[in-house]
Specification:
Helix content: 25-40%
Low-confidence stretches: none
Radius of gyration: 28 Å
Number of helices: 5
Strand content: 15-25%
Number of strands: 6
Structural class: alpha+beta
Length: 218
Amino acid sequence: MGQLDSVLQYLAFVAKSRPLSVLLDDAPAKIAACVGADVASLYLLENDGQELVMRGNVGFTPRARGRVRLRLGEGIVGAALAAREPFWTARAPEQANYRRFPWLEEDRFPALAVVPIISSPGPLGAIVVQRETAFTEPEVSLVAALTAPIAAAVRLARLLDDLREQAPQRQAARRVTLPGTPLVRGRALGTVVVPRRPRSGDGGEKDGKPASAQLEDA
């Protein structure tokens, strides 16, 4: 698959409204495909804008999600977001502000590029891509372009999640088994509907007939 096809697939993906969890699950792999990265991570700014949390990733162990955290200004990622400027290097482990997580073994991918995700109210997080060979300026520019639909998708996904949480919870359906003897051979499938209880004072009469008479007529 060529780079253009990867970008078009990514744009089609982020254009659809979807829960934030789905966006965080699938977007990193599509971003990695766009620039040929081995690792792609989505960091979101949380805790009143003071902490960056890796919420989406491809290339590292699944344990990294939610566990890798940086204070705003900490490490290469935190510093880039604090400055609101992209940063890329071919040898990230040699940078003075490099924040190492040994259990990730990320030294295998020394080339790193960080692009902040900027929205109108303020920064939302960052996209980080990593691989063995250096990123070019056009590749970093492409990642920067990919942040705009991510920002819109994150805002929309958060709005949808908030609306779902505010929506009244439907009463859980109850499954019951009704024992009995069939009158004919075969099997019948259908839905059992439980009608509301009669109003207080309602004796169940209809057209002047008591319920027992109605049952006999039926």
